[in-house]
Amino acid sequence: MTTRARMNFEGYQHPMTYYDAYAEELVRRYEALEFEEVHADILDAVPNVASNVLDVGAGSGRDAAALARRGHRVVAVEPSEAMRREGRAIHGTGSFDWIDDQLPRLDEVYRLNESFDLILVSAVWMHVAPEDRDLAMQRLQGLLAPGGRLVITTRTVEFSGERTMYAVEPERMVQRALDHDLDVERQQTSSDLLGRSDVSWSSLVFRRPDRGVAALPTLRNVIVNDSKSSTYKLGLLRALCRVAAGASGLVRRRDDGFCDVPLGLVALYWAKSYWQPMSQGLEQQAYSGQDSQFQEELDRATNTLSNYDLRVGKKFDGDSAQALHKLLRSIRATIRTGPSKHTTYAGTKDPIFRYKSDAFSGGLVPSELGEIELNPEYLRRFGALRIPTDIYESLERNWVWIEPTVVDEWANLMQRYESGDRRDEAYRNALKWRAGDRRDTQQVSNIVTRLLEQETDLSGVWTGEAIADSDKIEIDHCIPYSLWGNNSLWNLLPSTKAANRKKRHRIPSRELLSGSRERIESWWERAFVDSPNRRRFSIEATASLPGVDVDTDEPELDPIYDALVRQVDRMKRDQQVETWDGLSG
Length: 585
Fold this sequence. Notes:
Shape: globular
Number of domains: 3
Number of strands: 19
Strand content: 15-25%
Structural class: alpha/beta
Strand order of the largest sheet: 3-2-1-4-5-7-6
Distance between the termini: 47 Å
Radius of gyration: 26 Å
Largest sheet: 7 strands, mixed
């Protein structure tokens, strides 16, 4: 740091004032050092496979860029606007994500509804006020994936006067980490790389115990071993699998080891799961003739609704609204008194899932409504199902493997309950996910035709090739329908026929998305934001994309694009999906 910076440091009572004032000079100094040099003590704590990484206090983005080059998916948190601006100028915007956030709360990071395999907090802890450090450690622990590491490097010298830095005691940090259920892997000290004799550093590596490993046996016990007088426990798990697969944007991650899932959303996917088997009269309980609490309401709903109507963002009025609202209320009551109460850990009476009426500030659910929209506010009014984070993370990452086991056991139960002569495949056919979105691009095709009739220039998002004839364009699911079954408007993009056929069932690479960003956002603007579809587009993005809450009146497209990139990263991580780099690949 220069003499001028040293002299003036005392005058900056808030860290951001200092970093904004000296951003250009600080960035030059940071970038003069290599990541491997600065973090030589903790390099072996960095995962050697592609992982989710959070860099808190990213500064110039030096470390975030180095981690991204190693193949990691990186979120760089930096509260100084000037530092972010300088960092973007050096490292660009395509290889990792920038977020304006800071300790102790990291609220914006929590809105991503993501967990991280590595969290790096480099040269930041001394800026956290002592009274905020307990909360900061709690929030960091809550963002760690099972088995994930938290690495903190910090200055440890004492400071006098009212500065933006505070004394750090490594032993107190260790105790604070232990208090928050973190294991201590390493603690060591080192000298200052810039040669300052009055500065020393401490590196600490903490690890969240991998109790997530226990989540799969817990789920298997519920699916296979647990006694069942009905299919309701399986119905709840399947609904949660579908939430984790397609609507995790509405799930709220907490810092106490739990996630809150809107119970209205769970009820919606529960209705989707039971629509076919109940419509076909397949027995769902061990005792024939025993009434299901929601059977009567589902029967009424089938008179006015199709199972394809049950999707987030759709509006209803009149008899359809009444029927659906009563059905969801009945399902909520069934879940509260049945599977959420009786689904317990093996050998105990401790429930895995708990109902929380006040988890969201949505208010009470009236007994009748003449008009409803399946938007986040409505679905949250039903309260929440509070789920242990390790259970939800297991569902989120492994739903594609867990759901088939649930379906197999469900079919076996129905066959056992009926003791009839139906063929085995009849039960499994009834449980096929027909209640999901049908593959449908017609509405968006019509939008393309309308824009072309208005002599609006259109181009394929992947190639930039201008298209003047609707016969030469195809509507591409950015994340292939075969992988996700998602017809949300944001996921439907105009493509040339050649590009669409070359892409097939692959997801676009980060590089391709970055190069296509302007065209994607321009398409969203013209096709959806500047049209009557604005509200549907916004609600669907909020529900199905991670960490974005879109204003239905004035949707901002940059956050939606960033969330799309995160969802593509998730698909690649969780399902090992092949990526596509463009027409050359």
